[in-house]
Sequence to fold (301 residues):
Amino acid sequence: MNTKVKLAGVTLKNPVMTASGTFGSGAEYAEFVDLNRLGAVVTKGVSSVPWEGNPTPRIAETYGGMLNAVGLQNPGIGLFVERDIPFLMKYDTKIIVNVCGKTTEDYCEVVRRLAGQPVDMLEINISCPNVKEGGIAFGQDPKAVEEITKEVKKYAKQPVIMKLSPNVTDITEMARAAEAGGADALSLINTITGMKIDIHRRAFALANKTGGLSGPAIHPVAVRMVYETAHAVNIPIIGMGGVSTAEDALELILAGATAVSVGTANFHNPTATVEIVEGILEYMEEYGVKDIAELVGGVDQ
Fold:
């Protein structure tokens, strides 16, 4: 059985990868998960300078998931290149670096500094607030999506994945804009904006008031958006959003995703990614699927 998938010319041994922000850069999970068994490790967001993130509390459990307002805390590109890339190079897995920024120049600076590094792909997190546009996320304006994609592509030496926000009226509009800007692939969905109130303290559960909802609660939204996007663009899609089991992953693949990312599930089940790899193999065996490519978009076949 062939589980290899191809994303913009990059071949992964299987379609399972980690979701940015839930796996660090692999070191925290290496004692629980054999990183060699994953299609790719997607790193935590990396910015041009260190970010402290938001004030605490910045995590809250919710029914069927969790809210986070961590604020993309990270040590910056300098330490990332010095420490995290060499660690991941020890493993037989693809390296995808998630890039974040507050201005187009921020993104381009990180992409430029990664140009000569041994990483396989770049995932551009356009859910970040664009400080020059009053804080609206880059990914909520199709013109901004196309523009930032074009700019990043000028400096990128690796294939570029644009990570789309679901906090929009029409996900296909953003997907088409990213494709028009030259994106090599798309990943979706990022978290859905939510809020939780502590009724006993009569206060917000998060210092930031709102946070990103992730986990099983958002999975049906992810399936719908991946399906819509797969019918709107001609570039590959990485599906994510509430993937906890092989069944969840296979839903996204059947909806049109070439690969899938596992996020929140890692927090309560550190071996989730490997279990999903094994579950996909079991499914392929049970249904006589010789090549994983047969399943991509298979719901329409």
